[in-house]
Amino acid sequence: MSSVSIPSRPLLTEGPIAKTLFFFSLPILFGNVLQSLNGSINAIWVGHYLGEAALTATANANTILFFLIGSIFGVGMAATILVGQSMGARDVDQAKRVVGTSVTFFVGLSLLVALLGFALSNQLMSWMHMPADALPLAVAYLRIIFLGVPFMFTYTFLMMVLRGAGDSKTPFIFLVVSVILDIALNPLLIFGWGPIPAMGIAGSATATLIAQVVSLFGLIAHLYRSKHFLCIHRGEGHYLRIDRVILGALIGKGIPMGLQMIVISLSMIFMISLVNRFGSQTAAAYGACFQLWNYIQMPAFAVGAAVSSMAAQNVGAKLWDRVSRTAVIGVAYNFLMTGGLVILIYLFNRGALGLFLPDDGDAIRIAQHLNAIVVWSFVFFGVTFVISGVVRSTGAVIPPLIILFISMWLLRIPFAYLLVDSWGADAIWWSFPLGALASMILSLAYYRLGNWKNAHMLKAGAAADTARDIAAIAPVAIVAE
């Protein structure tokens, strides 16, 4: 073990689990809510002042943005788990080697994605069957989003690493700064003022870009000023050299975890391409509902992220009883928080949708019907996310990917595609509960029957574990199909 000093703050291996998980989750939850609020405020400006075509453009472009986040989610999550396990084992030197290797790999990846995405923005929107009136707007918006990818990726990566080290407060503070800047800059850049020209929909994306750049450099400056134990200083350049074992874990474990998000985002892209066939009114309704769904999913994302960091530290400390109790408490929190939001949406469905859509149009009627079918299924999705966070903390990353692929691509998408001609848009809406229920059943079955506790992040033998895990969930998968 390294001579580097252990941080003074309590680790996630200590204290009562329910209380520790709750207070560790809160900054993540509030941060997610702030991000969704930021996106919703931007959508209000765009939808009410730039029109339904502009809102359709941002809905489609934001689907690509979710895909981009998914493309780096795996590497960031692998780094989070490795840092968490290192902290649980009280090995800060290994944690810094994880950070250094990740940064070197991460910067190159983000630059590549930005260059390719900027060049292919028009083709991406065309492949998604973007309505003709919204296509130029979506391309202008998406190109600026791609310019910000290196900053967005780095910012996301730093937040995930800090959470793996047991710090969810610092990322939240700088997220607040980012959101405030974005909200303040949006109307200024959309409509212009004085010497600042009116940029329209491109102004909304530019505001987000500026806010992320300022917050990223502010966070980096704070970490070095506070002498954070994971910072790499002069004379520690060896940490930035690629460690092959760690890189192998980042890629070998990170790719399957990233593919989980990509499986979800690709299914969303496929779904929105089906939605777009019904015209701008239905697409606008879907975009408005998507804004509300962001809020509904926030507790599941927050609890799942907190559970993963807590479980990783306890795996590193070999405290398996705490890992199991963390899973149970995480699922209970999901039912409490996600279920509460679902009830609120049912009670105030039209009023909430009216924030994004004109009250006298067809879009709000379509959106009400859509929400009534879909929103309850996010409780099931939350269970899947929490359980996946626990099993991934050991390095068992393939079975959660298989479960998502079955629920999304073998159940949800065929259901929607095959029935859309006879059921209309309802086939798309009902496919959401079907996929969510299937993924929850499969995830719980794997948690009970799988060999996930014997998986490893940095050691050999994961292939054999994975084979046994797949065999464990195969009978349940057959039943679900």
Structure description:
It is found in: Cell inner membrane. The chain has 481 residues and is mostly helical. The protein has one domain. It is 79% helix and 0% strand.
How many alpha or pi helices? 17
**Assembly state (oligomeric):** single chain
Query: CA-to-CA gap between the ends?
Result: 48 Å
Number of strands: 0
Biggest sheet record: none
Counting structural domains, the number is 1
Radius of gyration: 22 Å
Query: What's the order of the H and E elements?
Result: HHHHHHHHHHHHHHHHH
The average pLDDT value, as a whole number, equals 84
Shape by Cα distribution: globular
Detail the poorly predicted runs: 1-5, 460-481
Beta-strand residue fraction = under 5%
Proportion in helices = over 70%
Briefly note the structural class of the backbone.
mainly alpha
Keywords: Cell membrane, Membrane, Transmembrane, Transmembrane helix, Transport
Membrane topology: Multi-pass membrane protein
Pfam family, one: MatE
GO molecular function, one term: xenobiotic transmembrane transporter activity
